[in-house]
Amino acid sequence: MKFVGIPVAEQDRALAFYTEKLGFQILSDQAFSPKRRWNELTIPGAATGIALFTPDGHEDRIGTFVNSCWEMDDLDRTSGELSAQGVQFSGPPDRQPCGSFFADD
Fold first, then answer.
1. Segment 53-59 long-range contacts (CB within 8 Å, at least 24 positions apart)
2. Is the pTM of this model over 0.85?
3. Would 89 be classed as within a structural domain?
4. H or E stretch including 76?
5. Is residue 63 a part of any domain in this protein?
6. In a domain, 64, yes or no
7. What distance in Å separates the CA atoms of residue 92 and residue 85, rounded to the nearest whole number?
8. Residues 6-21: tens digit of each pLDDT
9. Residues 1 and 45 in one domain
10. Alpha-carbon distance 49 to 32, whole Å?
11. Could you tell me if 89 and 42 lie in one domain?
């Protein structure tokens, strides 16, 4: 898989969040239409990235569920680092037999 699409309302704000707070790198930032850009991002060392883009007619998907799983070596350390960068979580990690994760209600 090359990328997972994440519908966003404000591309500049989303781009700043993913690059400045989460450490993604920009692979592509180019005009797609007069009002949208194609923002494709990657995590160094990862094969799959994300695209911050909302196709016309899919605006109702902004802020809704995006089925994705992001692996990290140390959940506690990484969540602490992200919190220090200003990332807000809905609660502590949910630890389950299949793994630990953050989930929104």
1. 53/5, 53/6, 53/7, 53/8, 53/11, 54/7, 54/8, 54/9, 58/7, 59/7, 59/9
2. no
3. yes
4. helix 75-84
5. no
6. no
7. 16
8. 999 999 999 999 999 9
9. yes
10. 18
11. no
Same domain? For 7 and 35 the reply is yes
* Residue 8 CB neighbours (<10 A): 20
Query: Are 42 and 14 in the same domain?
Result: yes
Longest dimension (CA), the chain: 48
Distance CA 2, CA 73 (A): 22
Number of domains in the chain: 2
Backbone angles phi, psi at 102, to 5 degrees: -105, 140
- Residue 83's pLDDT band, with cuts at 50, 70 and 90, is confident
The top-scoring range by mean pLDDT among 30-34, 67-71, 97-101 is 30-34
In a domain, 59, yes or no: no
* Cβ pair 17, 8 in contact under 8 A: no
Determine the structural domain holding residue 9 and report its residue range.
Answer: 1-54
